[in-house]
């Protein structure tokens, strides 16, 4: 270990021992691009805690049935995703609670459904963001509902596609209510903070009635 450094660093032999794998495996993962190149100091290669976290993640995903090719694709999708600051914004109001997950914890939430394609779709939607070696889901509610639908047998790809369509309509609904607020600006004492629960109640009630109409059995067919 190098002395006097802010973060712990490892020689390759130390890294392999901490990760519980062989030096040969570390070299193989590095050649495959599964871990980032080490920091070079002359002829010495230094690995850090980020490399160790990635190696432990690879081991955990392999135990869950992922292939090395699949893990490489997942890693590439994560590394090209937007970071958490870009997705959540700075200082923007929200009732949603973000959830921090490791890649293997995300795999456990959606067992067998965390494919590179689904991961990229979730990153594109802004449901997921990256923060160092962690993944952040923007909403505990959305995470739990999505996982619940998958447990009921709905493919994650279908859940994400539905989310994409819902986003379009939700943005349109938000425009309606924000337009109400702006049109009464200066003429009515409408608090922007008070608009949110009122708008949510209207939308929840209308959606409930719409579901009633769509799910209501139709008239019996003529025989």
Structural notes for this entry:
The chain has 223 residues and is mainly α. It has three domains: 9-63, Multidrug-efflux Transporter Regulator, Chain: A, Domain 2; 84-161, Phenylalanyl-tRNA Synthetase, Chain B, domain 1; 166-215. The protein contains ten helices and six strands; from the N terminus they run βααββαααβααββααα. The protein has helices at 12-19, 23-31, 49-63, 68-79, 84-88, 103-109, 116-125, 140-151, 156-183, 192-215, and strands at residues 9-10, 39-41, 44-48, 99-101, 128-131, 134-137. The strands form two sheets. Strands 1-3-2 form a three-stranded antiparallel β-sheet. A hairpin with a 2-residue loop joins strand 2 (39-41) and strand 3 (44-48). The termini are far apart. Mean pLDDT is 83; it is low at 1-5.
List keywords for this structure.
223 residues; mainly alpha; Multidrug-efflux Transporter Regulator, Chain: A, Domain 2; Phenylalanyl-tRNA Synthetase, Chain B, domain 1; three-stranded antiparallel β-sheet; 9% strand; disordered N terminus
What's the N-to-C terminus distance? 82 Å
Overall radius of gyration: 24 Å
CATH architecture of the largest domain: 2-Layer Sandwich
Q: Assign the CATH topology of the largest domain.
A: Phenylalanyl-tRNA Synthetase, Chain B, domain 1
Strand order of the largest sheet: 1-3-2
Strand content: 5-15%
How would you sum up the global shape?
Answer: elongated
Can you tell me the residue ranges where pLDDT is under 50 for at least 5 consecutive residues? 1-5
| Mean residue pLDDT | 83
Largest sheet, described in full? 3 strands, antiparallel
**How many discrete structural domains?**
3
Number of helices: 10
Order of helices and strands: EHHEEHHHEHHEEHHH
At the first level of CATH, what is the class of the largest domain?
Alpha Beta
